[in-house]
Amino acid sequence: MKVNVDQSRCCGAGQCALIAPEVFDQGDEDGIVTLLEPNPAADLHPAVREAAAVCPASAITIDDDTDDIDTDTDTDDTTDDGH
């Protein structure tokens, strides 16, 4: 999971920081979202999805293409007989 925030869209409602404080914070002066963790651990994914769903400005987007992708490619040059 890759999380993105569009600070120009954020209205400062703060729901994201309440739902997933490990991933989102708010600016002290303006309340605008700050992304703390763009690649959150799997156990935080449900909270991040909820935060994105309830964001009134749709300022949070999630790229799920990075979920559980095995990037290890088989580069073993051996043949089936082990040589």
How much of the sequence lies in strands comes to 15-25%
Major sheet, described briefly?
Answer: 2 strands, antiparallel
General form: globular
User: From the alpha-carbon coordinates, what is the Rg to the nearest angstrom?
Assistant: 18 Å
Distance between the termini: 39 Å
Strand order of the largest sheet: 1-4
| Topology, number of strands | 4
Count of the separate structural domains: 1
Number of helical segments? 2
Mean pLDDT: 87
CATH class: Alpha Beta
The CATH topology is Alpha-Beta Plaits
Would you identify the CATH architecture? 2-Layer Sandwich
Q: Report the oligomer.
A: single chain
* Derived structural class: alpha+beta
Low-pLDDT runs of 5+ residues are 67-75
Q: Fraction of residues in helices? A: 10-25%
Question: What sequence of helices (H) and strands (E) makes up the elements?
Answer: EHEEHE
Features:
two-stranded antiparallel sheet, single chain, 18% helix, 17% strand, 2 helices
Task: Give an overview in words.
This protein is of the alpha+beta class and 83 residues long. The protein has one domain (2-66): Alpha-Beta Plaits. 18% of the residues lie in helices and 17% in strands. It is built from two helices and four strands. The protein has helices at residues 15-19, 45-54, and strands at 2-5, 24-26, 33-35, 60-63. The strands form two sheets. A two-stranded antiparallel ribbon has the order 1-4. It has a two-stranded antiparallel sheet with strand order 2-3. A hairpin with a 6-residue loop joins strand 2 (24-26) and strand 3. Mean pLDDT is 87; it is low at 67-75.
